[in-house]
């Protein structure tokens, strides 16, 4: 255990470098990550000590669930089993993570799971609710881009980066509870993009390197366009369905009840929450919907108008700040 870095505001120590996350000094060792093996005691666990917690509805080409999650030893540990045979074991405190995979997969493949759903659940275990979103830094505040998979969060964040704005978080946006305001903690300095998004932004699918030979997603290195300190969450924009109408892109207000439902639908690890976690999430999201402006954005279907989408969000945000 010699590699140290900061991730979502946590001090991480690992036995190998984490792809996409630069090493850095840390003030505390909050999470220990062991790559390449699962805990030895796992082989001694009996079937009676394992309970199925969640099975995804999505299946791979072989008809297998993309992910199975098990509670082990009465919930003292959780085991994530992906269809490609990548596995993670997490302790109940969210302080220890083991990861293992098989050839031809690599640590780069494993990191795609770790930095998204696995760390999203680690944060939840540590009492931090997270949104499935991206966050950009504007005027010393954080703007979250919310929406389900395929809504264009990462593509829009990359477009903001091209305009000179720093990215605070990609895929996992923390709601660090500070009473009447919420902090978004910095994630890691890269954005993952599908080839279609790369082509829409840069004109060619090959403009950016692939994450790994085993995935189609590409890697945008943020370099100087990463904001490495937490920022207060000032607004949330829910990316809606793309439309061809000339008025798009445009922004609409969301009332509190609609905004609350939008937040509920886009929290991380929602299927893995127990009753206590669910109650805490419900109370926190109620306060978020009461104190943070929530807006619906309707993008245009033409990828060439993505820069206009960014400008529409910025104008609306600026109006909200000064209005």
Rg is: 20 Å
Let me know the largest β-sheet: 8 strands, mixed
Number of helices: 6
- The averaged pLDDT comes out at 93
Topology as a string of helices (H) and strands (E): EEEEEEEEHEEHEEEEHEEEHHEH
Walkthrough of the structure:
The protein is an alpha+beta fold. It is built from six helices and 18 strands. The protein has an eight-stranded mixed β-sheet with strand order 1-2-3-8-7-6-5-4, with helices on one face. β1 (3-7) and β2 form a beta hairpin. The chain is globular and about 60 Å long.
Core attributes:
single chain, 8-stranded mixed β-sheet, 6 helices, alpha+beta, globular, 323 residues
Give me the secondary-structure topology.
Layout: E1 3-7, E2 10-14, E3 31-35, E4 50-55, E5 67-72, E6 77-82, E7 87-91, E8 96-100, H1 107-125, E9 129-138, E10 141-146, H2 153-162, E11 166-169, E12 172-177, E13 182-184, E14 190-193, H3 195-202, E15 218-221, E16 231-239, E17 250-253, H4 256-265, H5 275-291, E18 294-298, H6 306-322
Parallel strand pairs: 2-3, 3-8, 10-16, 16-18
Antiparallel strand pairs: 1-2, 4-5, 5-6, 6-7, 7-8, 9-10, 9-11, 9-12, 12-13, 13-16, 14-15, 17-18
Helix pairs in contact: 2-6, 4-5
């Amino acid at each position: 255990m010699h590699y140290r870095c900061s991730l979502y505001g946590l001090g991480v120590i690992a036995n190998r470098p984490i792809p996409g996350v630069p090493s850095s000094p840390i003030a505390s060792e909050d999470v220990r990550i062991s790559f390449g093996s699962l805990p030895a005691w796992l082989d001694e666990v009996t079937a009676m000590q394992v309970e199925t917690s969640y099975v995804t509805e999505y299946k791979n080409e072989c008809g297998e669930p993309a992910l199975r999650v098990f509670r082990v030893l009465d919930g003292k540990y959780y085991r994530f089993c992906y269809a490609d045979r990548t596995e993670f074991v997490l302790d109940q405190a969210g302080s220890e993570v083991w990861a293992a995979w098989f050839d031809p997969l690599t640590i780069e493949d494993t990191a795609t799971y770790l930095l998204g759903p696995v760390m999203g659940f680690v944060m939840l275990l540590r009492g931090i609710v997270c949104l499935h979103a991206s966050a950009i830094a504007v005027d010393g505040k954080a703007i979250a881009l919310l929406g389900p998979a395929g809504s264009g969060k990462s593509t829009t964040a990359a477009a903001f980066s091209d305009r000179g704005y720093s990215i605070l978080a990609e895929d996992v946006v923390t709601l660090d509870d500070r009473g009447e305001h919420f902090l978004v903690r910095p994630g890691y300095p890269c954005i993952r993009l599908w080839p279609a998004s790369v082509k829409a932004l840069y004109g060619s699918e090959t403009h950016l390197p692939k994450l790994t030979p085993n995935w189609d997603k590409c890697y945008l290195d943020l370099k100087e366009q990463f904001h490495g300190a937490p920022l207060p969450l000032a607004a949330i924009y829910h990316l809606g369905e793309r439309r061809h109408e000339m008025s798009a892109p445009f922004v609409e207000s969301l009332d509190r009840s609609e905004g609350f439902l939008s937040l509920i639908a886009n929290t991380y690890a929602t299927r893995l929450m127990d009753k206590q976690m669910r109650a805490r999430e419900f109370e926190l999201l109620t306060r978020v919907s009461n104190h943070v402006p929530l807006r619906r954005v309707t993008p245009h279907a033409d990828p060439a108008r993505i820069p206009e989408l960014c400008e529409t969000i910025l104008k609306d945000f600026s109006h909200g700040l000064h209005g």
